[in-house]
Design goal:
Number of strands: 23
Distance between the termini: 97 Å
Radius of gyration: 39 Å
Helix content: 40-55%
Structural class: alpha+beta
């Protein structure tokens, strides 16, 4: 029995094992089948993806592959050349090679600069300038560390570039201002495009034209005529390797250079005018009345625009910004000053045109004018006796204009004066012009809401160019030129012609008069007689003694602060609180070819400070010999720039050869 039970148990165990084996085999076969299904599905998916990429997406990925092989590089156009009216170059370009760093590819910028300093000379100014640029443009791909490399310096850097990642030698076009400070406020300068400008460009229609450009006009003509000067960008298609190194050039679309500008300035006259100021602060604007051409435009002191080409270093910028003489202030456009007695000829013309005075009508000048409890005094104790309109200009009789101003309506007054450009922008073709102040009832109500009424007493001081009157030297020069042209007004302009870079055709910017003021000839003649008398027997006699031409002029002295009845003594007043000096002039008086205003800030009497400057400019204008010698003392950098370009060409060839050798 025991043996039978053992046999039955063994058979049962064998049957159980057989059942388990069959189950395992069944599940194994199912798992194997599922795996086969997954494998087949995987292959089908891969095949589908392969077909999708190779067939349906073939063009897309072929384009990407081609783009990875083909690189389109922008071709920056040559910036237009700026010359004066006689063809003297005032702004040009030259090519040079720069040592540049890409902050994105450099782990430690300071350490890299120290390594470079072992190879080439890196000056403290180079370091300061780079630091300033790095702080402002740290996201830029390339920032210049050193400009105008010599061929030896290029070779040294090229030989060591393998151990200086992020360090590059690049060919750049640089702006050159051969005259330095001369006419700096006219020409202005270019500078690196900042983030605000980049955003504006990217949002505008010129975004494609600035691709690859690092510089843009910042001041003066450079910014006012940016579109004309910039040119049209081109492009070059090149084949590159995996490291983005250029292998060969495929196609090229050349850039188109910017248009050239011919200014109305005579740079010889400009230089003479600037030298005439010496160390004095001030402004001078000379205009050709028959065209509106600005012959000279002086703001003293000036600055050297070449400082800004590579990026000005902090020390130089601080010196310009913090100088009490404000060299960056464009005084002809942004300096607002009371005109003093230079306003009187326009008052005399208005008096006749409005029928308030005639040329022969006289007043008795006791040396003062009283209104109520207030008294305004003339500069001559006891007065000038009987004074008519012509004499009032010659002797600069304040009493005459006190009385005249008290009789006028200030709004009618303002309406007449606006025809000559007072109290508004003249529209000259550079930015930054201020409108000045030509007071009206509405103006005073807004300016002084607690005391909005315009009193007769307010008008009295206006009559002699004081009080609320505030005009720019540009406005005074424009008004003088319109008067010299007997009411025919040409818009003042600094750019005379724009020369097309492709065709060479030139077009005038302002070929015709803007408008004409209806003035009676006899009224203008009376004012001219007064202006002539100033030069022959009045306050301008000493300054224009023995002149070889007949001119008319008017001196002016404008108070900087109210004396409140006290006596003015220049020697007892701080220099920057002394009176301003003015002089307006035109010549030859029978048919003026030049009209100008000279202004000396805190210069004192117009006859002593401003008139001699005007005389020097007038003499030079009418004397070709003086003009011919004007630029002999001015260092021209054209030859130096050409030599630099030639040196850098050979340096570039050496660097390119070294790169190609390493690439092979």
């Amino acid at each position: 029995m025991a043996a039978t039970r053992a046999l039955v148990a063994g058979l049962a165990a064998m049957a159980s094992e057989l059942r388990n084996h069959d189950q395992e085999l069944f599940w194994y076969q199912r798992r194997l089948g599922l795996a086969a299904v997954f494998v087949v599905l995987g292959f089908l998916l891969l095949l589908g993806r392969f077909v999708y990429l190779q067939v349906y997406q073939h063009k897309h990925f072929a384009t990407l592959a081609e783009a990875n092989r083909i690189d389109t590089q922008p071709a920056i156009p040559n910036r237009g050349i700026v010359t004066d009216r006689n063809g003297v170059v005032l702004a040009s370009n030259y090519s040079a090679y720069t040592l540049e760093l890409n902050p994105r590819k450099i782990a430690n910028v300071e350490a890299t600069i120290e390594e470079i300093a072992k190879i080439v000379d890196i000056t403290p100014r180079d370091r300061r300038r780079f630091k300033r640029l790095f702080e402002e443009f740290r996201t830029t791909d390339s920032l210049p560390l050193k400009s105008r490399l010599t061929d030896e310096e290029v070779a040294r850097v090229a030989a060591n570039r393998f151990r200086l990642p992020g360090v590059e030698i690049k060919a750049r076009l640089f702006r050159q201002y051969p005259m330095g400070e001369v006419a700096s406020h006219v020409i202005g300068y270019i500078g690196r495009i900042n983030q605000e400008e980049k955003t504006r460009i990217d949002a505008g229609p010129d975004a494609a034209n600035y691709k690859g450009s690092d510089y843009i006009g910042k001041r003066g003509i450079e910014v006012a005529y940016e579109r004309e000067l910039h040119g049209i960008a081109g492009s070059t298609e090149v084949e590159v390797d995996a490291s983005r190194r250029v292998i060969r050039e495929i196609s090229k679309k050349p850039s188109i250079a910017g248009n050239n500008l011919q200014l109305s300035l005579d740079i010889r006259l400009q230089k003479i005018a600037e030298d005439a100021f010496g160390t004095k602060r001030g402004a001078l604007v000379a205009i050709e009345p028959s065209t509106g051409d600005v012959l000279a435009f002086v703001s003293k002191p000036g600055y050297d625009p070449n400082l800004f080409v590579d990026g000005i270093d902090p020390q130089s910028w601080d010196a310009l910004r913090d100088s009490p003489d404000k060299p960056m202030l464009n005084r002809p456009l942004q300096g607002g000053y009371p005109p003093g007695s230079t306003y009187k000829p326009f008052m005399a013309l208005m008096a006749q045109e409005l029928g308030v005075r005639t040329a022969t009508q006289t007043i008795s000048d006791p040396g003062y004018f009283s209104l109520g409890r207030k008294t305004w005094r003339d500069d001559k104790p006891g007065g000038h006796g009987l004074v008519d309109l012509v004499k009032s200009i010659i002797v600069s009789c304040d009493t005459y204009y006190y009385q005249l101003a008290a009789e006028l309506d200030v709004d009618e007054w303002s309406k007449f004066m606006r025809q000559f450009g007072f109290g508004q922008k003249t529209g000259i073709d550079i930015d930054g012009e201020l409108p000045g102040i030509l007071p009206t009832r509405e103006w005073k109500a807004k300016r002084f809401p607690k005391d909005p009424k315009f009193y007769v007493g307010d008008q009295v001081s206006l009559g002699i160019g004081q009080g609320f009157n505030t005009f720019t030297p540009m406005q005074m020069a424009y008004a003088t030129s319109v008067l010299a042209n007997r009411g025919v007004a040409f818009k003042p302009h600094l750019v005379k012609r724009i020369v097309d870079a492709k065709t060479g055709e030139a077009r005038l910017t302002h070929p015709s008069a803007a408008y004409a003021i209806d003035l009676k000839p006899e009224h203008v003649d009376a004012v001219f007689r007064g202006l002539a008398g100033v030069v022959t027997e009045g306050t301008g006699r000493t300054a224009f003694l023995n002149a070889k031409y007949i001119s008319g002029g008017k001196t002016g002295t404008a108070q900087v602060f109210n004396l409140h009845g006290g006596e003015y003594k220049a020697s007892q007043v701080a220099e920057r609180l002394r009176d301003h000096a003015w002089y307006i002039a035109m010549a030859p008086l029978d048919q003026p070819k030049i009209a100008l205003v000279a202004f000396v800030e805190n210069g004192g009497f117009g006859a002593e400070a401003a008139a001699p400057i005007a005389r020097k400019v007038m003499d030079a204008y009418f004397d070709p010999a003086l003009l011919a010698n004007a630029l002999k003392s001015t260092r021209s950098a054209d030859a130096e720039a050409a030599a630099t370009a030639a040196n850098n060409k050979s340096a570039a060839e050496a660097a390119a050869a070294a790169d190609m050798k390493r690439a092979r």
